[in-house]
Amino acid sequence: MANANTAELPQKQPAAASGNPLARTLQAKLDYDQLTNCMRCGFCLPACPTFRETGIEPESPRGRIALMKAVADGLMEPDQAFNDQMNHCLGCRACEPACPADVKYGQLIEQARDAIEDHADRGIPVTGMRKLFFKGIFPHRSRLRLLGGTLAAYRKSGLRRIVRGSGLMRLFPKHLREMESILPDATAKGVVETLGTVYPAKGEPIARVALFRGCLMDVMFAGTNVNTVKLLSEAGFEVVIPDNQACCGALHAHAGEMAAARELARVNLQAFADAGIEYIVSNAGGCGAMLAEYDHLLHEDQPLRGDAERFAARVIDVSKLLVDRGRLPAFAEPGNKGQEQVTITYQDSCHLRNVMKSPDAPRQLMKRVANVGFAEMKEADRCCGSAGIYNVTQPEMAGQILESKMEHAVATGARYLLTSNPGCLLQMKLGAAKHGGDSPMEVQHVVDFLYERAVRTEKHS
Amino acid sequence: MLDTQLIGRLRAIVGDGHFRDDREALVAHSYDGTPMLQSLPDGVIYPGSTEQVSEIMKALAEYRVPVVSRGSGSNLCGGTVPAHGGVVMVMHRMNRILEVDQENLTATVQTGIVTAAFTAHIESLGLFYPPDPSSMKISTIGGNIAECSGGLRGLKYGTTKDYVIGLEAVLASGEIIRTGGKLMKDVAGYDLTKLLVGSEGTLAIITEATLKLIPPPASKKTMLAMFRDLYGAARTVSRIIEARIIPATLEFMDNPTIRVVDDFAKLGLPRDMEAILLIEQDGDPETVERDIERIREICGLELADRIEVAETREQAEKLLTARRSAFTALARLRPTTILEDATVPRSKIADMVLRINEIAHKYNVSIATFGHAGDGNLHPTATTDARDSEEIHRVEQAFEDIFAAAIELGGTITGEHGVGLVKAPFLEWKIGKAGMEVMRGIKLAFDPHNLLNPGKIFANETRKRVVIDRG
To answer: Can you list the positions of beta strands (E) in B102-204?
Structure first.
């Protein structure tokens, strides 16, 4: 906690007078218009997961904006407590739809984190790890592939069994151990390696679309990417998968690595520019939201601004595209003759809901599956605590949030819990394993669930 | 800055984690929902029980440290800005529903409970608590009581004061009093319950409330009427009441609001309309049908340009969108949104709206008006920019004129937001010198050392009354 500095500062002092270098960076990077737009009505408070868990004003969007503004106004020096508070935010952005004044909270929190990162003194090990992940691995497909391959090998070789048996995992904090235990089988073979870069539509093509394959998606959930392409094809879309596309940059932006995020955005603008496509389809809410905001990300980049706006306008979630334009096949739960009702439920991806504003499409698709009952989970619109890498960096809060989430999930009596984002998928798998009891519910991506239940005349292989 | 011994004592009362005086906590409790007001407290405390509140008050009284008790800090009058420093007491931890008494139709709650959470529970039991301030998703029952919050149902169902029948409160000395009870009749002495409702945290800290519940109406119907003539709309309001119909909701939007709402929500509203009335009636189905039919006739007689009656719940929701979007649409226009609540007798609504428009024009500021036409409670809303001090000055002048105009029309400076800091300089305009003296006497009797929310309601100086220029 901060030192108890109760000495009265003047109500307002010229921002430039601050001797604190972080204060100066924050003053430069924070959008003062947005800070002023917050009228402190407090309507965001009930929407905020960290406020709900703690009931403490600084843990709310209004509180965090007040802290940012206090720094910008010279009313407060940013200290460790300030930095911690900025990092405590899940970034779920549930406060944005709740805001009457349309304050761009997501942008403010990224600006704050970007400034904090510029001055972060993390010590060599952490800096090294961040550099390795954000600059060394995520931007480079081949290295991520290699990592995927290594992880797969780790699994298949029995090394995982040996490591677990050896007690080596006990060296890691509990939350990382728990996470490791639910990681899916990573693969070195992504969607392009499996299907190639162009996949034809079944029947008369409705439109030519491009798949954004994501980085983690294509390593951890390559099967979901493959199913996404096949489902799109079933529904009448020709799918191209530009092989030179990069990571969307969301993890970078959320962690305050804005320059790296912009670099990745530029690569993607290039990669999708020549594909001759109507839509850029994402199957990960977090990536989709990032892509849909490239216009904001590259707003200052004069030559690319127009391209970024056009790119952002074409981004769509797979569920929304299927519902709006697709020739949907029939979906049915196999082997279910109606004796026993299978219940399914859905956990919103925050960014699909709050940023891409497509909360209904996945639900509409789920309700189309024959012999299956859809049960809405209480507070499905609330963040599950995954929030990018939040569950790794803020395990305590994430754990608290997950626990109440799973209570609601279990209460639906669902056999399947579906979601639309890899982070949520992992967090829900963790939740099901931890709080699901003896026969935990199965956690799946909406696309996988649907593709497996599509009633087809002939199967692609 | 607080005495270290006092800090030790406060920590001992509530436990370490529930008292804070770090910079983050002070900054985050230096404001409420009112634009342009900020003042740092010296400490923030989160009590967990009435006994703790009592112990805290004893300690603070001993050290003569002021206290601002609050819920979520969403009020619009500067009522919970710690203008004189001291300790901000946040009631959120005291948020339990202690009892719902189905025989007496009452609920007893701790005052830190969020209003929407309370009404959700009450409605799940098939009961009804009518006060519905627009902030109810975040505001607390305690905050609603302190400000005597209203809402959209004021006309037919009354406001918070009509539902508070008993209170537990901690006095400035730390003593605990209980007023009223589960009683529909009670004339044992002065009505301290009603006195504390709307007292803005200046008389006592309200820790527990007994609230009256009623059975919910069986059905509801919604309609919208649009008028080219402002007076036609206003006469419609009066004639509905004259016809002995009390609608559950009778909301109003003026032309500037209609334009802004249409820009925002793309509802295809006719932009040349001078007024829109949103009307809802509830009750048993036959009465609702009959009333709505009669209201439709009245709207026709007053030459409403367009009348829409919702046949389904979905259609009703669509009609409600226009009024519900008003605040949001206005809030997005400019960085700073100043929402006031001048209130006039409902027969004077058209006059008041015209006066507001004249005043806005005179000071060259942008003010749109919507509000609760049925109870004469208007929300003239200025959209401006806190950073433009010259414009802000003109906005302030305009609001002074608006307060004066409301009083001239037999109205009041505030219908449901409270006096707080913002309207303190104007209170005497409404209640006069003698009224001020009585109120000061009451304050002194409750709080002789002026520790409870100092600076609110009573201004150091009353604003000089301007002569209204009708030009």
So the answer is: 106-110, 164-170, 176-180
Task: Report the topology of domain A331-453.
Answer: Rossmann fold (3.40.50)
Q: What's the whole-number mean pLDDT along residues A413-426?
A: 92
Of B379, B408, B437, the one marking the end of a domain is B408
Mutate which: B11, B19, B27, B114, vs A, most A CBs within 10 A: B27
Evaluate if residue B136 carries a pLDDT over 60.
yes
Q: Would the CB atoms of A66 and B135 count as touching at under 8 Å?
A: no
> Does B196 have pLDDT greater than 90?
yes
- Give B21's contacts in chain A (Cβ within 8 Å): 4, 6
Q: How far apart are CA A222 and CA A152, in angstroms?
A: 12
Per-residue burial over A199-235, b = 16 or more CB atoms within 10 Å of its CB, e = otherwise = bebbeeebbbbbbbbbbbbbbbbbbbbbbbbbbbbbb
Could you tell me the two tokens for B167?
Answer: 């209170």
Residue B23 in domain: yes
Q: Which residues of A touch B25 (CB under 8 A)?
A: 57-58
Identify whether B194 is part of a domain.
yes
Range of lowest pLDDT (A121-125, A201-205, B254-258): A121-125
Task: Output the pLDDT for position A341.
Answer: 79
Tell me the chain B residues in contact with residue A85 when contact means C-beta distances shorter than 8 Å: 24
Contacts of A284 (CB under 8 A, 6+ apart): A214, A217, A349, A420, A421, A422
DSSP 3-state assignment of B318? helix
Q: Is A10 on the interface with B (CB under 8 A)?
A: no
* Predicted local confidence at residue B89, as pLDDT: 98
Q: Give the domain CATH number at B339.
A: 3.40.462.10
Chain A, residues 102-131, CB within 8 A of chain B, namely 102
Q: Which of A1, A5, A56, A75 to mutate against chain B (most B CBs within 10 Å)?
A: A56
Check if A15 contacts B (Cβ < 8 Å): no
Within 10 Å of residue A46's Cβ, how many Cβ atoms?
18
Dist. CA B216–CA B211, nearest whole Å: 15
Range of the domain at B329: 219-408
Closest partner CB to B72 (pick from A8, A37, A42): A42
* Confidence (pLDDT) at A350: 94
Among A5, A46, A75, whose Cβ lies nearest the Cβ of B114? A46
Per-residue pLDDT at B328 exceeds 50: yes
Residue A307 has pLDDT above 80, yes or no: yes
Overall number of domains in chain B = 3
Give the number of other Cβ atoms within 10 Å of residue B178's Cβ.
13
Q: Could you tell me if B250 and B382 lie in one domain?
A: yes
Asked if pLDDT for residue B180 goes beyond 60, the answer is: yes
HSE (side-chain half, CA atoms, 13 Å) at A89: 31
Q: Which two tokens stand for residue B89?
A: 């007491």
What is the DSSP code (8-state) at residue B302? T
Residues B11 and B119 in one domain: no
Q: What is the mean predicted confidence (pLDDT) over B374-389?
A: 94
Residue with the larger pLDDT of the pair A101 and A128: A101
Both B241 and B199 in one domain: the answer is no
- Assigned token pair, B197: 């409702």
Domain A15-118 has CATH 1.10.1060.10: yes
Question: What per-residue confidence (pLDDT) applies to A439?
Answer: 78
Q: How far apart are the first and last CA of chain B?
A: 50
ipTM: 0.93
Question: A–B: how many Cβ contacts below 8 A?
Answer: 103
pLDDT digits (tens, 9 = 90+) for A344-359: 999 999 999 999 999 9
Q: What is the pLDDT of residue B377?
A: 94
Closest in B92, B116, B331 to A39, CB measured: B331
Neighboring chain A residues of B11 at a CB cutoff of 8 Å: none
- What is the pLDDT at residue A219? 85
Note whether B248 and B352 are same-domain residues. Answer: yes
pTM above 0.90, yes or no: no
